[in-house]
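sorry for the late reply, my laptop died twice this morning and i had to redo everyting from scratch. anyway the thing you sent over, i finally got around to it. pasting the sequence first so we're on the same page, its 258 residues, then the predicted structure underneath. double check i copied it right bc i was rushing
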Amino acid sequence: ALNPQPGRAPVVFLNGGPGDTLTEKWPHTFDLINRLRKTRDFVYVAQRGNPDEPSLSPKMTFSVASAPLDKPDSIKAASARLAKGYTDGLQRWNEAGVDLSGYDIINAVDDVYETRAALGYEKIVLRACSFGSQWSFAYLKRWPHTVDRALLDSIEPPDYAYDSPYWVCASVARVSKDAEASETLAPYIPEAGLMDALRTVIKRLDNQPISVDVTRPNSTETVSVSLSGDDLRMGPALRFWALGAGNELAGLARWPKF
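ok and here's the structure:
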């Protein structure tokens, strides 16, 4: 704390993901830290096995095969690649002698509890988002007497561990509605609106995938890339955090231009 105030419990920051880390990639997080540490201590607890953390635990990674560029992709095929990546990763770490039973929510919770005890704090404030909110809820169930308060966003309860596609689509639709009301963007908006334009393109690609020739970045090599409706569903059309550098809010603002 820059100016410690008596009786103010320290803030313990729990990242999302799982797998997110505290880096310069998220400048708004460092702004949050600087505001919180004005009057109370700030503690960051890393996740076990996070490959981006300089921790003592093994850096738990797994690889997922890339989709072939020259064939239309599908959600079924992408799911199969992901499942194989998980299965191969589990096998590799088991064979390396890693006790994978240590990488669960209970151990992650106890890491926070023991960090608190080691630093001599009686109570803590939990500040978290996304998976960090699940982590916090699990902590609150297990060690409630050590929590002063909690401030959580992007809530994911322990028994509801996925982001609803419906809600993501609804947020994109709200941005589209604002874009359509903009005088600046008016000349560029399709007559039916952005969401109908997206549905039309997805339907067209469902009926007939297309192939386009593109030049690889930093190269003169030309490759043929096939696109299906599922390619668009799984791509940046509804994953606004994929639309360039910056945070998710900045990506969402780029969505109408995309």
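Residues 75-95 form the longest helix (21 residues).
thats about all i looked at so far, will dig more tmrw
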